């Protein structure tokens, strides 16, 4: 398979225009770390953003950063850290889970709407994405948004590109709103709670005025430890001291939580963010097959335990919770439909959606990877795809068969 690696947006536009004339299907990639996510590739040629690198704008006083799409995420985060700033949505690194290599890119973060534990307080990646440049399926360079957040009239292309997984266009540059790094971070750890009690504790904390920025529950045995419920707060040191005391009083019926700070707390949240309990290397070391399926389920936080119980009654599974219980990471066997029937049947009465994040190619080709859309929404999705990519060049079928 040949690869195009344009060095400028103009080169990218020329490549796409020529591909459109030939009806040449293109596999859009950044660093390649998430290539195994989605339906298997149905393309002929790779179009890589790896040559589009460099931070094009950083205005610390305006809390804005822009970079070309192929810029390594680590480079962007290092620039921000040097100025005491950060991407607020805490993007996940898929490499441990997928067993992939390469460097995650800032364009892929936007294209996949990649968000981590801080999403419950800071919003998703799309909420911080305020500008994009991309090449559409006609080979036209398109700019949408800019350096400030504003109301949008008509089709919001910035939000449309976030989470489109490279199916609507080839991103060349992205602009994000950023936030200052908190002066201090502390995590309260409750131990020994079952799923239902943990969901109660997390909901109580999140409903309090004490500004929780991370809420996760690791059930007993998920990583060889006892059950742990994690609640993170961030801000000025004096505020942290006060909020720790108030949260302990608020949660006293759930036990006496331990307070963890520094690298120990950072490691806990990186493990949650990157789904470390289901990491490919960890599973292989434990003697399990790397092709065990991993699902990402989203539902109302209070309904998570019931959803998991329904799945577990149908097939063996392991799981843990993020986003206060609203995000469930679940691992199960990859045989058959990899649990698709059980997962979606359990979610149906609760509401929500499920994405098959890791599974063998044969399973991802046979099972809907992203949540199936009702027919009216599928018609809209296909229409949007046709409007931006009329020849169906970009990542054909990656999200939905035939789209």
From TrEMBL:
SUPFAM superfamilies: FAD-binding/transporter-associated domain-like, FAD-linked oxidases, C-terminal domain. Keywords: FAD, Flavoprotein. The keyword Aminoacyl-tRNA synthetase does not apply. The keyword Electron transport does not apply. InterPro entries: FAD-bd_PCMH, FAD-bd_PCMH-like_sf, FAD-bd_PCMH_sub2, FAD-linked_Oxase-like_C, Oxid_FAD_bind_N. Residues 1-181 form the FAD-binding PCMH-type domain. Transmembrane segments: none annotated. This is FAD-binding PCMH-type domain-containing protein. It comes from Methylobacterium crusticola.
């Amino acid at each position: 398979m040949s690869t195009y690696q344009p060095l400028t947006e103009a080169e990218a536009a020329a490549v796409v225009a020529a591909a459109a004339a030939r009806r040449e299907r293109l596999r859009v990639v950044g660093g390649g770390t998430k290539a195994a996510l989605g339906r298997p590739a149905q393309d002929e040629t790779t179009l890589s953003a790896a040559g589009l690198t460099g931070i094009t704008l950083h205005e610390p006083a305006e809390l804005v950063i822009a970079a070309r799409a192929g810029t390594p995420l680590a480079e962007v985060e290092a620039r921000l850290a040097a100025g005491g700033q950060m991407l607020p949505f805490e993007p996940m690194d898929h490499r441990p889970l997928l067993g992939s290599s390469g460097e995650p890119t800032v364009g892929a973060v936007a294209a996949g709407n990649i968000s981590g534990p801080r999403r419950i307080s800071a919003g998703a990646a799309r909420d911080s994405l305020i500008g994009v440049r991309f090449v559409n399926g006609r080979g036209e360079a398109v700019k949408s948004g800019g350096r400030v957040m504003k109301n949008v009239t008509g089709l919001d292309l910035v939000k449309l590109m976030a989470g489109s997984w490279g199916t609507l266009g080839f991103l060349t540059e992205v602009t994000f709103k950023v936030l200052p790094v908190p002066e201090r971070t502390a995590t309260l750890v409750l131990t020994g709670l079952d799923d239902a009690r943990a969901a109660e504790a997390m909901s109580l904390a999140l409903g309090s005025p004490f500004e929780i920025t991370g809420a996760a529950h690791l059930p007993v045995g998920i990583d060889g430890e006892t059950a742990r419920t994690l609640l993170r707060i961030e801000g000025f040191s004096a505020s942290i001291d006060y909020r720790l005391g108030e949260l302990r009083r608020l949660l006293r019926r759930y036990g006496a939580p331990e307070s963890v700070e520094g690298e120990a707390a950072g490691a806990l949240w990186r493990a949650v963010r990157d789904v470390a309990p289901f990491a490919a290397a960890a599973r292989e070391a434990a003697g399990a097959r790397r092709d065990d399926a991993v699902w990402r389920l989203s539902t109302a936080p209070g309904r998570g335990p019931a959803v998991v119980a329904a799945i577990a009654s149908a097939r063996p599974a392991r799981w843990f919770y993020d986003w206060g219980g609203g995000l469930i990471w679940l691992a199960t066997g990859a045989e058959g439909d990899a649990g698709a029937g059980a997962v979606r049947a359990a979610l149906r009465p609760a509401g929500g959606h499920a994405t098959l994040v890791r599974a063998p190619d044969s399973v991802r080709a046979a099972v809907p990877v992203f949540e199936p859309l009702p027919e009216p929404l599928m018609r809209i999705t296909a229409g949007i795809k046709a409007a931006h990519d009329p020849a169906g060049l970009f990542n054909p079928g990656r999200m939905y068969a035939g789209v």
